[in-house]
Amino acid sequence: MGLFSTIKETITFHKEMKQLRKDFEKKLLMYRTMTAEELATLPDDELCMAVSEKISALVENFGDEDEDMQRGLASLSEPQRVVYVLDYLEREVNNGGLCQFFVNSSRNTAPFVSESLGIVTAVMHKELFDDFIADNDIDVCDLTSFIIYDVDEFAAQCERYPFDAFDEKFYEYGTLEDALIPYIREHMDAF
After folding, report:
1. How many angstroms separate the CA atoms of 3 and 117, rounded?
2. By percentage, how much of the chain surpasses pLDDT 90?
3. Ramachandran category for residue 190: left, alpha or beta (phi over 0 → left; psi -120 to 50 → alpha)
4. In degrees, to the nearest 5, what angle opens at C-alpha 115 toward C-alphas 110 and 45?
5. CA-wise closest residue to 56 among 18, 94, 109, 97
6. What is the CA radius of gyration of the chain?
7. 73, 139 contact by CB (below 8 A)
8. In contact, 90 and 176? CB cutoff 8 Å
């Protein structure tokens, strides 16, 4: 393959990726305005993302600061909060581990994690989280010691507790989405 062909394929690839990103962003905007009846028609593999996006829009309306997120969380109904908290937990742990969950603004949802896991009967995840918190004497209502100001501080935070062991078990237990889908379908009127 010549240089011209390689350049042409690269340009085509970038155009396709740009279009995929536009289509995805358009779909996310659509989710934000869907009614409960419309959400109910979605297949399971799309439902959790749609509901999470809709709830995220509600919380984001309050602003970007920790206090804003706390006010946003307080404004949610219990089913909305359960889905928001557990979706946020799963995304953060899957992306960078429990340490990332604690250092990012997602830490504001930490006081609701155990209860939310119990509500959707994610028993193994709940036990794992509760044991980690208790064994390491972490106060989920005061995670200010996890606040970092640059990426270099993240490595130091990861060394404070046995996060890798937690993360490995979390991944072994499977996705929280499996517990969230039936819960969402049962409480569809809340979304």
Report:
1. 54
2. 77
3. alpha
4. 85
5. 109
6. 19
7. no
8. yes
Hey, what are 181's tokens? 């889908």
Please, are residues 146 and 92 in contact by the beta-carbon 8 Å criterion?
Answer: no
CA within 13 Å, CB half, 71:
9
How far apart are the C-alpha atoms of 112 and 84, rounded to whole Å?
A: 10
Specify the residue for token string 């419309």.
38
pLDDT digits (tens, 9 = 90+) for 80-106: 999 999 999 999 999 999 999 999 999
- pLDDT score recorded for residue 42: 97
Lowest mean pLDDT: which of 66-70, 88-92, 117-121?
66-70
Q: Any residues with CB less than 8 A from the CB of 100 and at least 6 apart, and which?
A: 92, 93, 106, 154
Cβ(73)–Cβ(81) below 8 Å: yes
- Please state the φ and ψ torsions of residue 174, each to the nearest 5 degrees: 90, 180
Judge contact between 80 and 58, C-beta under 8 A: yes
Confirm if 128 and 166 have CB atoms less than 8 A apart: yes
Q: Which domains does the chain have, with CATH numbers?
A: 34-190 (1.20.1420.60)
Residue type, 63: G
110: pLDDT confidence band, cut at 50, 70 and 90? very high
CA distance readout (Å), 46 to 29, 31, 57, 173 = 14, 10, 17, 21
* 36: nearest Cα among 24, 25, 47: 47
